[in-house]
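re: the backbone from monday

yeah here it is again, tokenized this time
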């Protein structure tokens, strides 16, 4: 990931390859205004810039600037005070994303508050991401270094930059895991990488293999993973600082590849099912960041890892499995596998007696139909939903609450078992959440269905194509709020 540092060098004297400057929209008869040397405002007007969000233009540096070139990026507002933190992330991230192949960039946001400058820095780091691990030629590496122009003795700004780096590193960890091809990231390998990610942090790791899962009664995880020659795993991470007064449990769906099993998915788009482990990557990354930041909150994290393939030993539609808590479930659709592995992990998470349980999953296509590809769904208890919505607003990630209509519960009554793993097609995201609710009891709980925004088919702001890392910042914000 790009390095980031604070410098007291002036806009005119900074010698980076590129100088990034924000552009405000015009107000009344006034044209766009560059937050920088006045000469650039005239240039912006001459080349037709309007200062709208996602508008990025690179130009040669005019006389008087030591940088080789300038990137102007629109903020979408006529006054800096009116620019939300997320819009700053998005604007600056769009600029650094466009700078792949460059060595260094300097970022100046004259007049920004500490909060705004931190958001801009975070956006710069998020935009400066590229996954090139398997490129052998013509790969444009991400921007390598970002200098933030500010006062040299601004310790509060330096602290904000340090936090921005940890947060962006966590988001990019999720992106790396999700973008890794499924032949290289399978349950055992995911478990190994999870342990490696926390090796230098005060986090205890426990990994259950397929034999321990079978002996422990994890019927959901075992059943989903039995069609693959690469068996399932359940990873438990325990971050327990001495000064913690709150305990949050996290559960992540970790289907390292989802073919649908015997209920096979259509071929078109199946390659994107390498991303069906985004929930597990998200909660792992949030735990890593919480420990790196030293947040005084106890976090237990469960990664429910399996590969859903239609091998000769795969579970069949009509099978009945016994879950970790003894509940029996009819598997009517093997492509409704995420809720099965999550349910087993939720039973263990609740047994830890946390103050809050959050699960994160690319769970249903129905959530995408309901909310599109940029907004995630949140369900759960009333307080659990409110906790996530407050955190998502602070983090700048869009979530929308969905209900649990009481009449949908009857759709999950089993014919020969306690439950069935699917209900009616209408309201599919809701019935999936209602299924999970059966395994959390009275615990305060939030269910995050991130199926839409977890993986992008087109770039926007600091997010390129592929894994976005969306929801890592929200989950981390919940942990920070609980720590506070």
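seq for it, each position gets an aa:
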């Amino acid at each position: 990931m790009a390095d980031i540092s604070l410098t007291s060098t002036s806009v005119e004297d900074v010698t980076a390859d590129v100088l990034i400057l924000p552009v405000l929209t015009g107000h009344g008869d006034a044209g766009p205004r560059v937050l920088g040397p006045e000469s650039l405002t005239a240039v912006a007007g001459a080349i037709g810039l309007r200062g709208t969000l996602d508008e990025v233009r690179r130009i040669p540096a005019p006389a008087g600037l030591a940088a080789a070139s300038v990137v102007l990026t629109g903020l979408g507002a006529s006054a800096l005070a009116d620019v939300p933190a997320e819009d700053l992330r998005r604007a600056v991230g769009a600029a650094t994303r466009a700078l792949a192949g460059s060595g260094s960039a300097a970022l100046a946001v004259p007049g920004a508050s500490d909060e705004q400058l931190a958001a801009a820095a975070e956006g710069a780091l998020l935009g400066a991401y590229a996954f090139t691990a398997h490129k052998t030629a013509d790969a444009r590496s991400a921007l390598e270094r970002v200098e933030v122009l500010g006062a040299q003795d601004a310790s509060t700004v330096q602290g904000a930059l340090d936090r921005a780096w940890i947060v962006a590193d966590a988001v990019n960890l999720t992106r790396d895991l999700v973008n890794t091809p499924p032949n290289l990231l399978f349950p055992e390998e995911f478990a190994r990488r999870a342990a490696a990610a926390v090796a230098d942090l005060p986090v205890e790791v426990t990994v259950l293999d397929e034999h321990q899962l079978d002996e422990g009664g994890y019927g959901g995880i075992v059943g989903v993973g039995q069609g693959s020659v690469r068996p399932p795993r359940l990873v438990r991470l325990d971050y327990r600082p001495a000064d913690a007064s709150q305990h949050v449990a996290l559960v992540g769906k970790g289907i390292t590849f989802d073919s649908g099993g015997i209920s096979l998915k259509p071929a078109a788009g199946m390659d994107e099912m390498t991303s069906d482990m985004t929930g597990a990557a998200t909660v792992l990354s949030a735990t890593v960041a919480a420990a790196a930041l030293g947040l005084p909150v106890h976090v237990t994290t469960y990664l429910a890892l399996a590969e859903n393939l239609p091998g000769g030993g795969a579970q069949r539609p009509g099978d009945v499995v016994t879950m970790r808590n003894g509940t029996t479930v009819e598997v009517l659709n093997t492509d409704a596998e995420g809720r099965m592995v999550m349910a087993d992990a939720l039973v263990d998470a609740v047994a830890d007696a946390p103050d809050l349980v959050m699960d994160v999953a690319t769970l249903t296509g129905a959530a995408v139909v309901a909310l599109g590809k940029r907004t995630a769904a949140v369900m759960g208890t009333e307080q659990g939903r409110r906790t996530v919505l407050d955190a998502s607003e602070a983090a700048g990630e869009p979530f929308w609450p969905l209900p649990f209509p009481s009449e949908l519960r009857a759709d999950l009554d089993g014919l020969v078992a306690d439950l069935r793993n699917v209900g009616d097609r209408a309201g599919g995201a809701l019935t999936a959440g209602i299924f999970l609710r059966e395994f959390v009891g009275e615990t305060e709980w939030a269910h995050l269905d991130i199926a839409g925004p977890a993986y992008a088919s087109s770039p926007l702001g600091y997010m390129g194509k592929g894994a976005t890392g969306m929801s890592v910042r929200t989950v981390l914000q919940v942990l920070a709020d609980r720590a506070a």
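The mean pLDDT is 95. Residues 3-151 form a domain with the Leucine Aminopeptidase, subunit E; domain 1 fold (CATH 3.40.220.10).
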